[in-house]
Amino acid sequence: MYQYSSINNFISINKKFPIILWPLILFNCKPLMPRNPIKRIKVILNYALQYKKNKFKKKSLIIDGDIALSVGNNNYKIIRLKDRVIYTIYDEHNESYILRSLRFNKSSLMYEKIYDVDIENRIIKGRFYNGHHPNLINASINNHLRDKISDMFINLLYKSAIKEVESHVYAKFLLSKSLGILNRNSGKLSEEQIETVKSFIKIEYEKFIKSYSRNKIILTFSHGDIKQDNLLEVNNEIVLIDWEFCEFRTPFYDFLKFKARFPFLGEEFYDYILERINRYFKESDINNLLSDYFYTHSINNKELFYLEDVYLRLIQFETRQFASDFSRIIRFIKGVEV
């Protein structure tokens, strides 16, 4: 086992490094640092204060790395900066994420690179992307960043495997799975909460069944959780990390989820991105299924998106501590219904 000293509840440094080298190690780990070098120094000084208050806590981990990050539920990410490698260690309650990585890592060329999987010790060895998180607050006025975000959404579709499924069967699947989670967790929820979600998804399901006339619908590989913490700027492009909630979903899903999460970027920003996506797939003959989809589907028909999104939110509620507040799902539904 290798010993790490905790700076705070999130970051630890391998004890093999003398404390005088810690600022340099942190300075060179771009995902933990702001882009501005002066601001980086201020962050490091703040870490030094946190370390002093943290009473020099220690932890033992199975991997020899530079930096260890606690990602909740006794799971860790361990970074080797020079080797550009990151190890993800899961506890015994999260083995399903390893199986998902094995199942899905070939479903998209954008999926983060995996070098090795140790199922016995629940460790995934992957590529470490040493880039800064983009500042999304400025995305609406930064044309360069806006274009990189547009390219990210295009690549998510272009580099994805595609599934063609029975449209009504898929909608029924989403409804049934969501109802199953509600039933399993009925002891934790009020009758009003359960009824609010059940009523919403049943209405959206019926609206889709009545309005969608095609027998088939295509699904593309979706990240499912695009936010600033899961975006890195590397070699002048956006890289997506942490594909924990990936799944095959309708092609508009990630775009609509991103728009719902960051409404402050404004309609002009999203209209620009959507226009670029539509033009790319309508004017190219790269993939006939995707071209047909963008010719025949409107982003305003959101019934399946709502079913997919409620299902994902319910999965997160059931499995992850950060999403245990069910009122967030209720607020989402109330916001849709307004």
Question: Would you mind describing this structure in some detail?
Answer:
The chain has 338 residues and is α+β, with helices and mostly antiparallel strands. Helices cover 45% and strands 18% of the residues. It is built from 11 helices and 13 strands. It has helices spanning 22-27, 37-53, 95-104, 143-158, 167-184, 191-211, 253-261, 267-283, 288-296, 303-319, 327-337, and strands at residues 2-6, 11-14, 58-61, 67-70, 76-80, 85-89, 114-118, 123-127, 162-166, 216-222, 231-234, 237-240, 247-249. It has an 8-stranded antiparallel beta sheet. Helix 6 (191-211) crosses helix 11. The chain is globular and about 65 Å long. The model has no long low-confidence stretch (mean pLDDT 93).
Q: Which descriptor suits the 3D outline?
A: globular
The helix fraction, in percent, is: 40-55%
* Cα-based radius of gyration, to the nearest Å: 22 Å
The largest sheet, given as strand count, sense and whether it forms a barrel, is: 8 strands, antiparallel
How confident is the prediction overall: mean pLDDT? 93
Q: Please give the number of β-strands.
A: 13
Strand content is 15-25%
What brief labels describe this structure?
single chain, 338 residues, alpha+beta, 11 helices, globular
Structure at a glance:
With 338 residues, the protein is α+β, with helices and mostly antiparallel strands. The protein contains eleven helices and 13 strands.
